[in-house]
């Protein structure tokens, strides 16, 4: 069966409106994952659906500069700028990891104007974790 020929003015081949639906989220959760090599900032709604995210790598930092506090500050600012436009006013902050960008990202979040209900450290801590390998015999 032959395909129907679309006219240039038909509605089928044009996109109506914005493809991304903008949700109004007054409250959310900001996750900061700070490793020694990179800092990733993810903003979700209360149910955990991602609204916006940014990392030091996507902000243009490469190599050892990704782990710096300035890169973390820039990444946090980029992630939060999008959600402030969508109307977020309150947020919880969950920080994970030992990296240098922890404090700088938190400072950038505080400066953005979002009211923080609490800041929680969710870094995983082993309760005497895995069994270490046997000592090497000489």
UniProtKB/TrEMBL annotation:
One biological process term in Gene Ontology: translation
Keyword Metal-binding: no
Residue ranges, annotated region (Disordered): 1-25
SUPFAM superfamilies with a match to the protein in the record: Translational machinery components
Source superkingdom: Eukaryota
Comp. bias intervals (Basic residues): 9-25
Chief location bin: plastid
Molecular function terms, GO-annotated: rRNA binding; structural constituent of ribosome
PROSITE patterns noted in UniProt: RIBOSOMAL_S11
InterPro entries: Ribosomal_uS11, Ribosomal_uS11_bac-type, Ribosomal_uS11_CS, Ribosomal_uS11_sf
Alphabetically ordered keywords of this record: Chloroplast, Plastid, Ribonucleoprotein, Ribosomal protein, RNA-binding, rRNA-binding
Gene Ontology CC annotations of this record: chloroplast; ribonucleoprotein complex; ribosome
Cellular compartment(s): Plastid, Chloroplast
Family as reported in the entry's similarity comment: Belongs to the universal ribosomal protein uS11 family.
Complex and partners: Part of the 30S ribosomal subunit.
Protein name: Small ribosomal subunit protein uS11c
Lineage: Eukaryota, Viridiplantae, Streptophyta, Embryophyta, Tracheophyta
